Every structure is written in structure tokens, then in C-alpha cells.
Amino acid sequence: MVVDTLKNCAEYFALHEKFEKAFAFIKQAVADGLAVGKYEIEGADLYASVQEYNSKLPPEGKFEGHRKYIDIQYIVSGKEVMEVADVAKMTAKTEYNDVKDVEFYEDVSNASKCVVEMGDYCVFFPQDIHKPCMAIDGVSTPVKKIVVKVKI
Q: What dotted CATH number matches 2-151?
């Protein structure tokens, strides 16, 4: 997992050949005030979703993992808690859905937690089982986020 601010994104371009294009999309989307929706960048290899929602209270959150894609989750406005745990320490709750590239996991209390605010992002790799969108201190607040899916 990587947690950083957009101004440092170039430090991570070497991690994947499509990261530079992914972060360029995020920067342009923020500058343009891109509306909620799905956006193709390079077809199924690189695409994005602009989302607006209220952060979730604990019973609503789910740990999820992906096998085919890396998630870059950038906070446009608001803030939330994102939790992460190593897949080796997790127990699957559902079977892997190959079409949606998602598997859900049992909740754990010992996951690492970080507050991600406007201008920050997290990068989740397949070993990073994550629970994003969580409320801070039990108070649900509005969040706008860009999630870029980068095919491995």
C-alpha cells in the first residue's frame, strides 16, 4: 500500500507502466471538476470512476480485494478512513467474482488505518485487502473520490 499526496505521485511512476497516465488523469479530472461517472482512459487496462457518497459507519464497511487491478483512490474533497490488511492474514467471506474482480473478506480489528484527506491518495495492490469509505470518529460526511483501476 502507498499513502501520499498528489504532489509526490511521480515518485511512484516506476511501480507500474500506467501509473503516470493514471495520475495525469486524476490531475486533469480535478482541474476540470469531472462529474460523477465512469471514464475510460485505456479501455479495460486503465479506467476511472468518479464517486460522491457519505462516508460509512462501521457496520456498513466491507473489506475487499482485487486480483486483476491495482486501485488508486484519490480524495477530491472530504476525508475518510481507509483500512488495510495483508491478504495472508484475512479470511474470505465470499468467493472471488472474476467478472467484477472482487472478493470480500471477514472484518478484522487489527487492520492498519489511515485518514485520507483532500489531495491524498492510497494505492492498493492485490495483497492489500482494504476497507475504504469509512467515517472518521463515527461521523458520516460527504466525500468525492476518484478511483483509478490499473490492470496488472
A: 2.60.120.370
